[in-house]
Amino acid sequence: MPDNNSGQESSRTSWQNPVAGFGVTFANMFKKRITEQYPEYKKPTAPRFHGRHQLNRHPDGLEKCVGCELCAWACPADAIYVEGADNTDEERYSPGERYGRVYQINYLRCILCGLCVEACPTRALTMTNEYELADRSRASLIYTKEELLAGLTEGMVDTPHAIFPGMDEQDYYRGLVTEAAPGTERQVARSQGEEMPVDSEPAGPADVAGTSPGTSGAGGGAGSDRASGKEVRA
Ligand code: SF4
Ligand code: SF4
């Protein structure tokens, strides 16, 4: 049965629709306008914002990454590439048996979901609040280990160097190592082929690191790119 009111109903909606359609526009026309002054002013992110990744270090400068590849396996976007390698007494980058020799994150693929961080067993991988990841070339958006590795803070010495004398890998995770052993800088300088004056710094336990478990003969190893003191983004 035809609805007698349908004509009246449709004329009312046809009159109301444009008004309703512009309702949001009208409502916003009288609101205070906010212009973000980016990039002059960068609005602080939420504390747990998912930004660029960082590879962390132990308090003495050794790397936390053990090259296990769990982050790469967890990544839904296949954005992480890891190659692990064995530490040696002459060239040590992490306290344990293995370290991440090659580490890359492809920010053309990464969706900043954080699953890789959840998968990491050593808290080597975390995310910073840095969000400015645009660049002019595809290659520059594949971040290398040197770019991702955390900078050195007070008490840290760049790798490679021996573990803290008298400590083992577990002690690092128990928080017993709080800074580099005295004399660790001397090991790094030697690994770079630099001549150090004998009395330039006091001899320390790291100079006799062979007395501690698993740390024999840390000085005099071959140099590496990372040992060259290249500036890294923290
Ligand atoms: S944040 Fe997500 S997408 Fe990006 S590398 Fe980690 S797991 Fe992969
Ligand atoms: S970042 Fe963590 S999960 Fe990834 S390879 Fe290193 S230790 Fe393993």
From TrEMBL:
Domain 4Fe-4S ferredoxin-type, chain residue ranges per copy: 55-85, 101-130
Taxonomic path: Bacteria, Bacillati, Actinomycetota, Actinomycetes, Kitasatosporales
NCBIfam families: NuoI (TIGR01971), PRK05888.1-3 (NF004537)
Reactions mediated catalytically: a quinone + NADH + 5 H(+)(in) = a quinol + NAD(+) + 4 H(+)(out)
Organism this protein belongs to: Streptomyces pactum
Function according to Swiss-Prot or TrEMBL: NDH-1 shuttles electrons from NADH, via FMN and iron-sulfur (Fe-S) centers, to quinones in the respiratory chain. The immediate electron acceptor for the enzyme in this species is believed to be ubiquinone. Couples the redox reaction to proton translocation (for every two electrons transferred, four hydrogen ions are translocated across the cytoplasmic membrane), and thus conserves the redox energy in a proton gradient.
Cofactor: [4Fe-4S] cluster
Family per record: Belongs to the complex I 23 kDa subunit family.
Chain positions recorded as [4Fe-4S] cluster 1 binding sites: C65, C68, C71, C120
Oxidoreductase keyword on record: yes
Organism domain of life: Bacteria
GO terms for MF: oxidoreductase activity
Chain positions covered by the region annotation Disordered: 183-234
Cofactor binding note of this UniProt entry: Binds 2 [4Fe-4S] clusters per subunit.
Keyword line: 4Fe-4S, Cell membrane, Iron, Iron-sulfur, Membrane, Metal-binding, NAD, Oxidoreductase, Quinone, Translocase, Ubiquinone
Name of this protein: NADH-quinone oxidoreductase subunit I
